[in-house]
Amino acid sequence: MSLADLPIFSMLKQRMSWLTERQQVLAQNVANANTPGYQARDLQELDFGKMVKGDGLALSPVATNVSHIGRPVAGQSLGAAKGGVLVSAPGHETTPGGNSVVLEDQMIKVAETQSSYEMVTGLYAKSLGLLRMAVTSQG
Amino acid sequence: MGAVDLMKSMMIAASGLQAQSGRMRVIAENIANAESTARVAGGDPYRRQVPTFQEKLNRELGVPTVSIGRPIGDTSEFKLKYMPGHPAADENGYVKMPNVNTMVEAMDMREAQRSYEANLNLIQASRRMIAQTIELLKK
C-alpha cells in the first residue's frame, strides 16, 4: 500500500495537481493580457462531492480531443490542461481589441491559488505527522 | 509532477516578460524618434510603430506562450509643421512630422509596466508554491 492509497492523501494530491494546473492557465492569461482577441480562461472547480464518492479517484479516461466521446473539451485547440476542464472566464471588461483579461482579477486568482496550495501542503504535512504519531511512540 | 507544471507556468510568465520588454523597446523607439523628419524635401518622416502580440504554442514545453510579432507601422496621418527653412520642407514651407503622440506613448509605457509587474508576480507565486512543495520533504 502506498501513501496515495489513503483517501486523504489522494484527495490532497488531486487538489495539488488541480492548483498547479490552474496556475498554468492563469500564467497564460497574464502573459496574454495584451494579445488582441484573447479570451481569459480558467479551470472548472473541483467537485468535492465527486472526490468523496471516489469518483474522481479511480482512473478514468479524459477527453483531450474533440473526437473523443465523453465530456466536451473546452479550448481544446490550445489544450494546456491535462486533467481539468478549461472554461472561458472573461473578466468584467473587454478591450476594443477583444481581449477579456483583467489583470486585477487574475492577480486575485493567483493569490487564491497560492494560499490554497499552502493549505494543501500544510494539511499534507499534518496528515504525515498523524501517521508518524501512530507508528512511533512519541509524536 | 507538480514542480514541472509550476516551472511551465514560470516559463509562460517569462514569455510575457519578454513580450512586454519588447513592447517597451518599440515604445522607446517611438519616443526617441518623435521629432525625426525626412532629409529630403517633402519626404515622409519616421512612422510610429505599433507592437503586436500573438499567442504561440511552444512545442518544447507543449504550452501556449506569448510572443511579440513584427511591429506594424501606424497608418494615421502625419502632422504638418510650418518650417520654411527646414531641409524637409515642401514648396509651401510645411514639414511632415512623425505621427507619434508622446502622451499615447507614455500611457502605453505605463500599461507595459503594469503587465510586466503582473507577470513578475506570477513568477513569484509559482516559486513560492515550488518552495512549499520542497518544504514537504523536510517534514
Structure at a glance:
The complex is a heterodimer of chains A (139) and B (139). With 139 residues, chain A is mainly alpha-helical. Chain A has 3 helices and 2 strands.
Structural Rg of chain A:
18 Å
Number of helices of chain B: 2
Major sheet of chain A: 2 strands, antiparallel
Question: How many strands of chain B?
Answer: 6
Query: What share of the residues of chain B lie within helices?
Result: 40-55%
Helix content of chain A: 40-55%
**Biggest beta sheet summary of chain B:** 2 strands, antiparallel
Secondary-structure element order of chain B, N to C: HEEEEEEH
Q: Overall 3D geometry of chain B?
A: elongated
Instruction: Report the mean per-residue pLDDT of chain A as an integer.
Output: 79
Distance separating the two termini of chain B? 19 Å
Descriptive report:
Chain A has one domain (3-136). Chain A is 46% helix and 4% strand. Chain A is built from three helices and two strands. The two termini of chain A are 22 Å apart. Chain B is α+β, with helices and mostly antiparallel strands. Helices cover 49% and strands 17% of the residues of chain B. Chain B contains two helices and six strands. Chain B has a two-stranded antiparallel sheet. Chain B has a two-stranded antiparallel ribbon with strand order 2-3. The chains are: A mainly alpha (139), B alpha+beta (139). The interface between A and B is large, with 34 and 38 residues.
